[in-house]
Amino acid sequence: xxxxxxxxxxxxxxxxxxxxxxxxxxxxxxxxxxxxxxxxxxxxxxxxxxxxxxxxxxxxxxxxxxxxxxxxxxxxxxxxxxxxxxxxxxxxxxxxxxxxxxxxxxxxxxxxxxxxxxxxxxxxxxxxxxxxxxxxxxxxxxxxxxxxxxxxxxxxxxxxxxxxxxxxxxxxxxxxxxxxxxxxxxxxxxxxxxxxxxxxxxxxxxxxxxxxxxxxxxxxxxxxxxxxxxxxxxxxxxxxxxxxxxxxxxxxxxxxxxxxxxxxxxxxxxxxxxxxxxxxxxxxxxxxxxxxxxxxxxxxxxxxxxxxxxxxxxxxxxxxxxxxxxxxxxx
Length: 331
Ligand code: HEM
What we know:
alpha+beta, Catalase HpII,  Chain A, domain 1, ten-stranded antiparallel sheet, two-stranded antiparallel ribbon, binds protoporphyrin IX containing FE
């Protein structure tokens, strides 16, 4: 009994320690590094050389972006160059490229819009509106509770305790609890979650968070319906929808007030914030591997746009770069 207690305490310490050997990665700011995330993702989803270390399972698509000009994004190059080409990747959360598409949970979108001068603008978001943690340390601590033990078993009590002790994880945990399986990528809404800024030529700054609304509406599968689906259906469903319909997504910006946090992605802004459209992405084709070697880093922005100082947003660039480098070199 005593031995078990000691073993589990050591295991807990090792899990929280990550790779850098510091035992209190959760408590100590700036201890969690980008590479710790990559290694943690591999512990959670396995090692899959050549694949993205998160959102490993995905589907490329391409389309066009038709901008909506408006006063808050006045003279943005993104919105004043007419119709632009977009490279898209839809994905399932997790590090396993063979994930079961019947499983409820995270679905992602990466969109890179190419401007005539070669500049890129990236929108990379998920289907949940709020992030699991106010900073990278909290998120890392949360994910660490999901690592299975040596017998492949998770410890839900440990995860529950972490959620209880870390309020900034709670809104996302609530979302996860009720999340259903997406019927199709074309029926999924996506949220940028972080705050971005656009500086107008007159110096005024627009503070915003973006989200994406599907033209075909949000549709999910009940548990019993999902159970009847094959393990893989998202590519075929989207291909069928592209045959039958116009599949498009409206990119909306919620305009922030001074009191709305620009550094905490676990804090949602009030729903009554004004919203303006940035434009519409219409998906024209899907399949192939055009997006395979793309890094959908959310900090790659076109002229006039800047990221906020959100530490999770910053951590994303560093982690995506490591994942990108690894997968391009077959690791
Ligand atoms: C500390 C927080 C986060 C870490 C460490 C992280 C890490 C990663 C990594 C390593 C990849 C693979 C990158 C590549 O190989 O190209 C990835 C992909 C992705 N992440 Fe994150 N992420 C974080 C937060 C988020 C958030 C907040 C969102 C949504 C708003 C998000 C959405 C996505 C999506 C959609 C992809 C797939 C992009 C693609 O298709 O290439 N991630 N993430």
